[in-house]
Amino acid sequence: MLRFLLPPLLVLFSLVASASARADASALAAEEWCGAIGKRLSSVPPSLCRNLGLKAAPAQSAKGRALMLRDIQPLARQVAQTSKGQPWAPRVLLIGGIHGDELTSASIVFRWLQWLGEPESEAGRYHWRVIPVANPDGLLANPPQRTNGRGVDLNRNFPTPDWNRDAHTYWAGKTGRDPRRFPGQEALSESETRWLHDEIESFQPDLVVSVHAPFGILDYDGAAQQPERFGHLKLNRLGTYPGSLGNYGSTHKNTPVITIELPHATAMPSRGEQRQIWDDMLKWMRRNVASKTLS
Fold first, then answer.
1. 208 Cβ neighbours under 8 A, 6+ residues apart
2. How far is CA 187 from CA 36, 60, 194, in A?
């Protein structure tokens, strides 16, 4: 009898050991990653970062750094029901730090990640996937740089329908071949962009929120009612670019994308303004995201 039980037990032991090893590796990655982030972002001490529950993704940056994220499930008592009586929570993908030299775009996502744990928050209606630093190589470069570790602007590397035709033409004609805006040799050439693309494919968000700086505006791509103002940030639609996340999300995936452009790349908004932007966004989401998914 024992010889029949041994193979399944060995398989089970192997699976448990493998899961434990992955958890240990993720914890080690978070420890090292948070230490580096804390040295670059004064508003994100390593101890705070380590307590936010971030996990390492299977993918890594161009220079082998961990790509970290956290999934936050909706609060059960706040989950709404569809017209057919099924529980449903809209999915929101929140991304900071696609451009590494926009330090505030990462810092404010860390701040909002703390607020997602508030028990009575309107945010509890949603299933969140939060990526505070999409471009760790750019953020941790000395000095910080817009592009990733291979010199590619990640926000020009998404596979928009017009990428093959227009990405390099736009880069040459509109930016004068600015190396800070190089779209890559091909769409999805970069590990970070492939990872974000895969997260969008697997998570299927109802809304993408991408934080940038320093234009001090709101931009919006999508069919839902556009937001007019979050805090002091007013809507100013910048248009679409080949390979941008906004273009990819709205045109290719039919997913609305809000781009929050903070006023400064290195100076955070006041605590009150951070809260007002957050609260105004949640109010807009309740009217335009939750209501759409429940219909």
1. 92, 93, 95, 200, 245, 249, 255, 256, 257, 258
2. 29, 18, 9
> How many domains does the chain fold into?
1
Domain enclosing residue 233, as ranges: 2-293
Distance, in Å, from the CA atom of 98 to the CA atom of 146, rounded to the nearest integer, reads 8
pTM: predicted TM-score of the whole model, two decimal places: 0.88
- Of the candidates 217, 238, 239, 214, the residue with the CA atom closest to the CA atom of residue 228: 217
Give me the pLDDT at residue 26, please.
57
Find the mean pLDDT for residues 105-129.
92
CATH code for the domain of 12? 3.40.630.10
**Two tokens at 56?**
């390492």
Beta carbons within 10 angstroms of residue 264's beta carbon: 13
Tokens 């759409």, located at residue: 292
Tokens standing for residue 39: 């040295």
The residues near 168 (Cβ < 8 Å, ≥ 6 apart) are 183
Is residue 218 within 8 A of residue 233, CB to CB? The reply is yes
